[in-house]
Amino acid sequence: MRLNRIPVRVSVVLATCAFVTSPAYAAWPVIDAAVLMAVNAVNASVNGVTASVNAMNTSVSQLLYNIGTAINQNTSKVSSTIEAASRSEREFAVAQERNRRYEDARQRYAVPASICSESGSGGISEVGAAAGSTKGTIRPRGGAVISNAAIAQAVNTPPVPQEIDSSRAARIHAQFCDADDFAAYGGARACPATSTTMPGADKRIDSLFIGAGPNGKTPDLTFSQAQIDASLMYVQNGIRRSIGPQLHKGEADTVAGAQYVGLLTQFNAIISAAADPLEQQIADSALNPTTRPLLQEALTSSAANSYFQQVASPQARATNTMSAREFEAFEVGRRYANTAYQADLQSTSGDNLTRELIRVTALNAWLLAQLKTEVRKGNVIEGLLLASTARQEYEPILSQRYRAVAGRLGGQ
């Protein structure tokens, strides 16, 4: 009867066990409601975790995708930047090379503004030849133009006796009386008043180098006609003054006349050498027509024109023509003393700079050649002076010995 006292819960469990162990229901799971709820809760938790994991995976995948996309974009930008930089560098190098070639071509083939003045330099030989021809007209009765009638008469008439020649020089000097003369004999016919335009022009060497003019004048390299007249009178007083009159035809036909003519001819040979440098100086200072076209062409250069406006003589400004002296000084000075040329030189490079160096060297060579010519002339004159000095020393001795020899021969 003790079996009848088994609790109901135990009996239910036993019945359940019996049911489970029953062969007919062995495959059916028997799940407690509480277990089922627990399982469902676990499943729900697992599903939530899975969803979270999936969401995290999705987020991580999206992040990685975004990172990859950003990396690809940055890589593309870097590649584009590198490509653009390389292209810019290539383009810059090409442009630089092109500019270098352009500049090289410009330096090689461009015609500088100074080329006109360079072509003007090419005519310097013509200028020198014209000056040499002018010198041939300056000698007595050579055909030179002399506007002053008194000076023309003194230069172009045959030699007269010394007293007449000196009186004529005094009359002409009345036009050129200076302060020293006036202080000594002012008011006399030889010096009625002090000259205000050309004092002392017929006795001052300034008339040959800077041109006759008032005291303190600026040098002129191209002389006016009045300045040329004064310089010719200076040569007349200094070199060609008379030592004796020229003979007439009847006098020259005598034996003594022939000897006189011979002596005067020998004397004039020496005087010609002595007067040559002075007459060449005058010829080089006279207006030279060959400089006009050369100067016109040279002044198309702004640097040369600037220097011309700065230093040209009044005669050159008025006539657009220079003397050989002034043209030569212009050619030298427009390089050495011309700031505009210095500016042009600073902007010159390459072949043009080399060409300019060659031009300057050629100019120096030309000037040296002219200096050599002047040295030769000086040597000729010194030779004549030496011969004259030797003659003065030996002529009396030889004459004495000759008379002694002739006397001994006559005595035999």
Give a quick precis of the structure:
The chain is mostly helical and 412 residues long.
What does this protein look like?
The longest helix is centred in the N-terminal third of the chain and has 77 residues, at 33-109. This protein has 17 helices and no strands. The chain has helices at residues 8-20, 33-109, 115-121, 124-138, 149-156, 162-173, 179-185, 206-209, 225-238, 249-252, 255-285, 291-298, 302-311, 314-319, 324-336, 339-346, 350-411. It has a domain at 115-347. The N and C termini lie far apart (225 Å). Helix 4 (124-138) runs antiparallel to helix 11 (255-285), helix 5 (149-156) packs parallel to helix 9 and helix 11 (255-285) packs antiparallel against helix 17 (350-411). It has 412 residues and is mainly alpha-helical.
Question: How much beta, percentage-wise?
Answer: under 5%
Distance between the termini: 225 Å
Helix fraction, binned, reads over 70%
Tell me about the largest β-sheet: none
**Tally of individual helices:** 17
Please state the overall shape, judged from the principal axes of the Cα atoms: rod-shaped
Spans where pLDDT lies below 50 across 5 or more residues: 1-28
Specify the oligomeric state. single chain
Give the structural class: mainly alpha
- Whole-number radius of gyration? 59 Å
* Nearest-integer average pLDDT: 81
Number of strand segments: 0
Taken in chain order, the helices and strands follow as HHHHHHHHHHHHHHHHH
Which key terms come to mind for this protein?
rod-shaped, disordered N terminus, 73% helix, 17 helices, mainly alpha, 412 residues
